[in-house]
Here is the input.
Amino acid sequence: MASIQVSKRNGVPNGFLAVIGGQIDGKLIRKYFKKHEDAERFIKENDKTGATMDKLFANRAELEVCINRLAPLGVSVLTAVDFYIQHGARKANPTYDEAVALFIRKKQRVGRRDRYTKQIKKSLDSFGRFIDSKTKIGDITKEKIEAYVFDFKGAVNAKTRTGVLTNLSVFFNSCIKDGLLGLNPVKQIDRPTVVYKKPKILTVEEGKTLLVYCVANKAWEQLGLFVLVGFCGIRMEEATKLDWSNLDFKREMVLVPDSIAKKAAFRENGIPANALEWLSLVPPSYRAGCLASKKWEARNRRLIAKASVNYTRNCLRHSFASYGVKHPSWGAAMVSDYLGHAGGLGMLHSHYRNVTSKEDAIAWFSLVP
Here is the structure.
């Protein structure tokens, strides 16, 4: 504490000593003044400095640790403090699992689908098991993420790695918005190069074989699903949730409600003339309720195997996109709308523009029973 003491010489008062304590070395500073008011002024001017020195002395051990940790980086304590003030979190530094729980609650609160929240939570939980979910989010570094994405998940392809990085980046950006984090460590990581291979599509002959087999075996469930995906651009997962009442045969339209559409945005897709002919084969008594049963996936697999068609996952959707882009009456913009794509046409062009020919495209949308 600062104080003013009477200065004496040979036992006779001759002035005043302003005493300031709390220096880093523990020693006191004494300064002589002839007048009491000068001593007071000195103490007032140095009150702030004295308090700061008190804090430094009390926290000298922590300060020494900070200096030592920053030394290998060639960074001063002042630089580190300036950086934190500019970029640092404003709230407590929670554990990873606490931050993930907050993130998922936010997504649910704004109406994101269960499918989305379950998918991204599964991805985030996997990373949490790798780093220990009790790790503070501020301690998750670029190096830890790279070790997980490029080393631990070594068997996955570039597209999967990119998806993992995207999920983590969305999570960290949310933490920044909530004031839990200052910087997104994923931003410092280069994305792997994704090579887009030519998608597998059904030939016109394979498409006809598949649909004819459905009709011959009265597989009306599969016929409806395959027609909606292959000629109307509906996702298989969307088509299986549609009701027959969603098909307006008078207007020749399929309504995909927002409760079903992947992007939570309803759309109406036209039903081409050839698709109407295939759908007209479904008995009227069957056109009620949901298009698909709970066992649609297993039934699809069995029918495709029996029809002996070279079919891979999403093959019909790829067929619609590839033939649609080349068809003179369709074009990329319309196909993109039917597919329910968000954003521009870049992905559509890069994936489907050079897969098939104009002649085959016309033949595909001319397939009739």
